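Lecture 7 notes. Example A: sequence first, then its structure tokens.
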Amino acid sequence: MNQLKRSSSELDPDRPNLEDYLPSGASIQPEPHGKLRLRDFLDISPSLAEAAGVIIDDSFTRCFKSNPPEPWNWNVYLFPLWCLGVVVRYFVLFSTRVLVLTIGWIIFLSAFIPVHFLLKDHDKLRKYLERCLGELICSFFVASWTGVVKCHGPRPSIRPKQFFVANHTSMIDFIILEQMTAFAVIMQKHPGWVGLLQKTILESVGCIWFNRTEAKDREIVAKKSRDHVVGPDNNPLLIFPEGTCVNNHYTVMFKKGAFELGCSVWPVAIKYNKIFVDAFWNSRKQSFTMHLLQLMTSWAVVCDVWYLEPENIKPGETAIEFAEGQGHNFCSSWT
């Protein structure tokens, strides 16, 4: 099959942009006349340039890149439709979604505050109501993105000696799963309004927080996790073993610490349809607030959630081998 050749001036989306690897505010400065640099030799040979690109932009780096959609509003017929879509998304859908989310917060806070403070002597009832309210506010969040979530497989149930692992694309992974089942998640501590929600609301469902800068947090989280999974009335524990957000095209190596609890592992695979919006959150380039605004000004967030069969570590299998096997299971569930 014949393929069209690209001119050297065309932009290759898979070719690394050297500007992305420079410190903030820095740029590539022109060299004095007559002084040769490595860049000059790379410009001479396309093969050398491609080899250098492979070194800079390896497969691991690509796991954290968001691929911008192809522009489609490039002619006089499509541009008016695109402009109409912008008006509808930003002035009609966004305002409606803000109203929906505001109503949701009013309902949630008016019920959560009295339940949390007035039912301290009724622990079982308080936990049940807080679990239901947590699912409720997450449902309002999903509604504010016009979320379309299709589930496959049996829903999680509360039982001891089990935990759930899921691939990680954005913090909204937790919201999407939480609106169906109240999970207790292991999550990085965040500043700002997200940190406030962690300290006040999410702690009520048994979430476990850690700080990457604290060396002792690893041992503390491991102990809390082991204590949590043996509690018969605790919410199911949810772990994102990748430890970072990945662009939903790939999965990276699962950290073995999540598979050393000696319990049954229930994998949960989340796959987003990027036809309307890319749900990948690059925390280095975008705050979570801006990420939510991007979702709320899109047409919809569409995803599939697969609840896979539980897995147990086999005799003689190490935690590293078990973690690698789970990573392969996630990839095969998407295809």
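Example B, a different protein, same format:
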Amino acid sequence: MPVNIEQASQNLNSKLVNGNIVKQQIVNNNNNNNSNNNNEKKFLSEFLRLKVEGNQLFKVREFEKANQRFKQLNNLILSNKEIYNNIISKEQKIECLQTQIQCCLLTNDWKTSLESCTKLLDLDPNNLKAFQQRATSYKHLKDYDESILDLERLIELDPKNKSAKLELKNIKNLVNKEN
């Protein structure tokens, strides 16, 4: 099924503005502000394009390609941190990271998953799913101590989480076998 990226981007742009996801900017007639506003518009346009493409590729199960779009999105963000922090809401940042993490896990991109989980936990320090996913990434990178710490933190936040308890037990057994 072909994806109409332009239409999806326009729909998302409307949703973002109408849903107050993008913070409103005060635009002055000052030339400096006009230049900043143009940079913000360019950034937002590219941000939305990459986000929409990544999400659409994810929906059609093209996880490798989706992961590439999210990596491009990360590069865009790294080169425009100030604009990113000024105009993209916390909710949008979290949503992008969550989708990227899913792509990474599905493509065994453990390092990027780990980095994205850490960024997500910086934004939302009690995000249970991010702790679970980061523990999984650590496990696959054979950093069992960090995996155990994340699982213990997850269980501290959610004492009834049976899967986290089971995974913690499995990793501790794995460590004991290796020693």
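Note on Example B: Residues 1-6, 12-32 have pLDDT under 50 and may be disordered. The longest helix spans residues 31-59.
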